[in-house]
Amino acid sequence: MQEFLNKTTGGCFAKRLSLDLQVKFLYAHSMAKARIFIIHGAYGNPEENWFPWLKRELEKYGYEVIIPAFPTPKDQSLSNWQEVFEPYLEKIDQNSIFVGHSLGPAFILSILEKINIRVKGCFFVAGFIGLLDDPLDEINRTFTDRPFNWNKIRESSSMFRVINSDNDPYISLEKAEELADHLEVKIKFYHNAGHFNEKAGFLQFTELLEEIRSVIENDQ
After folding, report:
1. How far is CA 198 from CA 39, 184, 202, in A?
2. Do 3 and 104 have their domain in common?
């Protein structure tokens, strides 16, 4: 550890650090490798729900957090969202984690189909594929109503967590199970969590924060 600090900070500075500070320095250095992408849904934006809170909390641990702003509802299409995300593709590596809400997971699936790297993990909150028999189907169709390369998708992430509520007003149990089945994972259900949005009281999401940190730290 001392040799590492000598190389990265200069020997004199390293010698003045207490053991406690050295440990904190090394912790921050290793954790900074993690990069989290948070993807909002239809009619969404980076400043809604629990997204800003999660970004702030993750940044406290030295993680990089990116929340792109996608066009919605006007000009919402899979191709337009992919164009917005294009500059971020080069930032994806084996330390990346994706977090998607609502339509966000379906968009993340399209990314996993394209990349040639295995990311650290994906967390899908209130996600779905297919049509919902809802007016939103019109702007969501290009994301969700298409063939998916599930083998490629599963190969592109080390883990998946599918999170749904037992009273989501938009996503039925069947739609949640459809996504989870294709990813070959079990659903983590929350009671009375609605659509995990501000209307349901979700301006923070402590359990999600802890799960993300656990995935990052257990892989160090």
Report:
1. 16, 29, 5
2. no
Reply yes or no: is the peptide bond before residue 73 cis, omega within 30 of 0.
yes
Encoded amino acid at 135, one letter: P
Over residues 55-70, the pLDDT tens digits come to: 999 999 999 999 999 9
In the block, which residue shows the tokens 């919402």?
Answer: 76
Q: How many domains does the chain contain in total? A: 2
Same domain, 21 and 100: no
Q: Do 171 and 70 fall into the same domain?
A: yes
Q: Which of 123, 153, 127, 124 is nearest to 214 (CA)?
A: 123
Tens digit of each residue's pLDDT (9 = 90 or more) over 186-216: 999 999 999 999 999 999 999 999 999 999 9
Report the C-alpha gap between 135 and 166 in whole angstroms.
Answer: 22
